[in-house]
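re: the backbone from monday

yeah here it is again, tokenized this time
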């Protein structure tokens, strides 16, 4: 208990409790010191709970009782399961106080437990400083704007708030392990790529953009991990192979979509077009969906040629010459006449444009009608071609039948022989097939069983791989935590005072271990001696019972014939009964001695509880309370 008390006193001194140098055990604690130690521990464990309790006993007895009840309730709120009340603090006993102080010391927060879950280094210190500042600001009560001090105006004012605007950031690409960076990309990132803080147009958008980019990277990594664990492992490919196959499938789907869109475009738009879209043509050439010539439809059709010849107009020399002659102003024409002439020419051109638009609409309608009629005609042609092919087959069969009619009997005989030979050949082929079929079926069954066994093995190996992945992930997490804990412990070790002698603590620990080992050896020796004594007692008891049984039988036989032997038999029975009573008396004596030792231990325990001194204190406190009550009653009467 001395070592336990020293550890408790050292821990209580670290919490700020003023313990004298002469105090070396919990037995020397007074009520004032117990209350101070408990309050200091409560303030360290739960500041809101301990700040409302005074660290010293008040002078009045009623206030002391109330403080004792408050301390007992606070300890119960922290989870103390032992018996506790105001008497624990005012009329304390050594075991109760020791158990309570041990509970509170175990509840004290330690720097290692707080920092074990956080990474060590500058980032951890920065996070701790931010958390402390936030806690300090949250602990301050809200004050109306008119009553705020300058400090509160800085911390509680709304200030200028910016909206959460995130912009796309351009970051250097992450390089894989063993892959050298591309020289052009590295040169661009080094020489031309602006820093992240300069890419957004507004400085307030930098944190939002960084958070958005980080969230996107985390979600992408999580999606890839889920996809790889659910689908990628089943393909039995490497991650690079799985990505390349997925990329090839996506490229193929895009190519098919572009091809279908390029084929459906001419039929959907019946208006004349001068040429395909250059962007679409280049895209189709990149994906292999267009011809090298650059035209989506490499071969012209009858309708395209018809459109070309229809909308190509012959030049009219006379009209153009007249327009040019009228457009050239002479020196004798005035500007008004020139403007009027230009207005007439513009109206004439607008009329021509309207006529061309009407003609274009009419041609578009004709094209639609012709397209519908062509589709109908093509369907009719296909249907008739199918009917003609069926009719040709039937005509061919009938012609062959008519050619065989003149010599019908010979042809029937030939047909019969041909049928019989075909049947024999079928039977022989069937027998040959059966000969080949049996080993093939056995081989198929064997291969199927082998395939099922391989599938079972692959599924088992796949499950093992998943378990290994989980174990690797857990091991990596544990390794990170242990590395952080190791760094934290190294930092704490470096911050510890170097004047403390490690050898003294080591020697004390070795002495404690040696004492425990000696006690264990003595306990083992006592147990072995007790077992040996019990065995010897049992053997002697059995020997005594057997000896008495044999002696009783021999004497009883002789007692029937001799009177003196009969008296000896009576003496033998009395001797056995007295011995039994003596053994029982010895056993009862041992039981009584054990009870005496237990009672002595209980007496020592009760003496340790200081029952007499506590009763004296209780009587004194009772007298003080009666005096306070009488004084209060006198004041009430005077009032």
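seq for it, each position gets an aa:
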């Amino acid at each position: 208990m001395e070592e336990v008390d020293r550890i408790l006193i050292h821990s209580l001194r670290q919490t700020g409790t003023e313990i004298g140098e002469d105090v070396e055990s919990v037995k020397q604690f007074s009520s004032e010191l117990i209350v101070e130690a408990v309050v200091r521990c409560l303030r360290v464990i739960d500041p809101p709970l301990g700040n409302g309790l005074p660290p010293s006993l008040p002078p009045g007895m009623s206030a002391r009782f109330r403080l004792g009840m408050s301390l007992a309730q606070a300890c119960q709120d922290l989870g103390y399961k032992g018996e506790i009340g105001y008497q624990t603090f005012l009329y304390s006993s050594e075991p109760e106080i020791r158990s309570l102080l041990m509970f509170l010391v175990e509840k004290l927060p330690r720097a290692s437990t707080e920092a074990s879950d956080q990474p060590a280094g500058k980032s951890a210190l920065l996070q701790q400083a931010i958390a402390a500042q936030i806690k300090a600001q949250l602990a301050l009560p809200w004050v109306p704007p008119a009553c705020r001090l300058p400090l509160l105006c800085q911390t509680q004012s709304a200030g200028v708030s910016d909206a959460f605007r995130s912009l796309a950031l351009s970051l250097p690409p992450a390089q894989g392990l063993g892959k050298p960076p591309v020289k052009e990309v590295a040169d661009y990132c080094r020489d031309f790529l602006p820093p992240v803080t300069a890419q957004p147009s507004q400085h307030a958008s930098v944190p939002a953009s960084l958070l958005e980019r980080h969230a996107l990277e985390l979600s992408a990594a999580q999606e890839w991990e889920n996809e790889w664990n659910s689908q990628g492992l089943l393909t039995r490919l490497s991650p690079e192979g799985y990505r390349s196959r997925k990329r090839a499938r996506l490229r193929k789907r895009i190519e098919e979509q572009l091809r279908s869109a390029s084929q459906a475009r001419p039929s959907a738009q019946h208006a004349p077009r001068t040429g395909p879209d250059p962007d679409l043509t280049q895209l189709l050439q990149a994906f292999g969906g267009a011809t090298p010539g650059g035209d989506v439809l490499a071969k012209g059709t009858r309708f395209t040629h018809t459109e070309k010849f229809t909308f190509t107009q012959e030049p009219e020399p006379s009209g153009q010459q007249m327009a040019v002659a009228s457009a050239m102003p002479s020196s004798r024409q005035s500007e008004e006449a020139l403007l009027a002439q230009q207005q007439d020419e513009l109206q004439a051109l607008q009329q021509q444009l309207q006529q061309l638009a009407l003609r274009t609409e009419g041609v578009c309608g004709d094209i639609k009608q012709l397209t519908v009629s062509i589709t109908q005609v093509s369907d009719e042609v296909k249907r008739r071609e199918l009917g003609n092919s069926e009719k040709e087959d039937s005509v061919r069969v009938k012609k062959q039948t008519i050619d065989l009619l003149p010599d019908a009997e010979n042809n029937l005989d030939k047909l019969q022989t041909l049928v019989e030979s075909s049947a024999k050949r079928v039977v022989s082929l069937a027998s040959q097939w059966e000969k080949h079929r049996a080993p093939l079926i056995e081989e198929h069954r064997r291969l199927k069983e082998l395939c099922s066994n391989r599938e079972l093995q692959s599924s088992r190996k796949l499950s093992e791989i998943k378990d290994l992945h989980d174990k690797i992930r857990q091991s990596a997490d544990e390794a990170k935590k242990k590395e952080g804990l190791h760094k934290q412990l190294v930092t704490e070790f470096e911050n510890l005072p170097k004047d403390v002698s490690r050898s003294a603590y080591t020697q004390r620990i070795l002495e404690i271990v040696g004492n425990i080992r000696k006690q264990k050896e003595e306990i083992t020796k006592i147990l072995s001696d007790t077992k040996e004594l019990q065995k010897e007692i049992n053997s002697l008891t059995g020997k005594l019972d057997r000896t008495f049984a044999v002696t009783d039988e021999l004497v009883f036989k002789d007692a029937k014939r001799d009177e003196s032997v009969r008296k000896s038999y009576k003496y033998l029975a009395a001797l056995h009964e007295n011995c039994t009573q003596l053994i029982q008396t010895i056993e009862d004596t041992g039981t009584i001695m054990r009870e005496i030792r237990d009672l002595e231990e209980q007496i020592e325990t009760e003496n340790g509880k200081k029952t007499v001194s506590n009763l004296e204190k209780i009587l004194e406190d009772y007298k003080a309370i009666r005096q306070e009550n009488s004084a209060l009653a006198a004041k009430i009467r005077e009032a």
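DSSP finds 20 helices and no strands in the chain. The mean pLDDT is 78.
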